[in-house]
Amino acid sequence: QSHKSLFEKSELFFLCLLRPLSFEIQRQESEIDAAAWMPIDDFKAQPFVQNNDIWKHMVEICSARVDGSYTGFSSTYLRSTFTDSWNYLYWNQGNRDSHSR
């Protein structure tokens, strides 16, 4: 826990792999002064990332995913027997065989 949050609960971080529909940046001028794409190595070298263990670890996971050395979580779209609706099940693909007994 990095700060005193409500009800003394811990933070949760979620990493999502997103692919842009376009590389054109559309910033909202009333809220954002400047915006630009940044090479991942430049982002990783920033003091904020290097001096923060959580950010540093998250960036390393993302980099490993991009270069193909980490498969990460996969998703399967399944129908729920309780609500008859469709839901995503997220699981760690690297450990699938050890849990499929």
UniProtKB/TrEMBL annotation:
<keyword id="KW-0378">Hydrolase</keyword>
<dbReference type="InterPro" id="IPR015797">
    <property type="entry name" value="NUDIX_hydrolase-like_dom_sf"/>
</dbReference>
<dbReference type="GO" id="GO:0047631">
    <property type="term" value="F:ADP-ribose diphosphatase activity"/>
</dbReference>
<dbReference type="GO" id="GO:0051287">
    <property type="term" value="F:NAD binding"/>
</dbReference>
<dbReference type="InterPro" id="IPR003293">
    <property type="entry name" value="Nudix_hydrolase6-like"/>
</dbReference>
<protein>
    <submittedName>
        <fullName>Nudix hydrolase 2</fullName>
    </submittedName>
</protein>
<dbReference type="GO" id="GO:0035529">
    <property type="term" value="F:NADH pyrophosphatase activity"/>
</dbReference>
